[in-house]
Amino acid sequence: MRIELDKLEEHGGRFAHVYDVGELSLDDAEVRLVGPVEVSGRVRRDGNEVVLRGKLQAKLEVVCGRCLKPVELPISTGFTERFVRAISWVAEDQHELREEDLNLAVFDGETIEVDDLVREELLLAVPVNVLCGEKCQGLCPVCGIDRNLSNCQCESNELDSRWEKLKELQM
Ligand SMILES: [Zn+2]
Ligand SMILES: [Zn+2]
Fold it and tell me: Is residue 1 predicted with pLDDT exceeding 80?
């Protein structure tokens, strides 16, 4: 979805879009869309800057950080992103001040690509270590068995001295 600035009122307007699964690619091997993505918000024009403020709702699928099972992750988040025309960005001398502002993007002055913004915000909303459940036992580091489903005999071997040495080396 694109926002064309010349189609907006002088000070801005509203935008809304629903992406079907498959309409938006997240370009991330570990995060998948499993439901439509709803985005809506307001566009505000302020001199050379354009500010998009809105909310996002989506259903993602990620893998459990311990057992690698797929986990559904509903996302509901708000965002504010500022866009600056490429030309004024180049002409400006005060870049040091701006670099701290992570929510600043450069655009061509005519259209804003909302897909990129949505993709970025969705990936940012994924927590670092998602678990299928707080009590997930994870995979056995020795034989790879899913400890939530069955047990193995590796536990007792973990006390093996060679294994202990290996663990020390890894730390
Ligand atoms: Zn798990
Ligand atoms: Zn095992």
Answer: yes
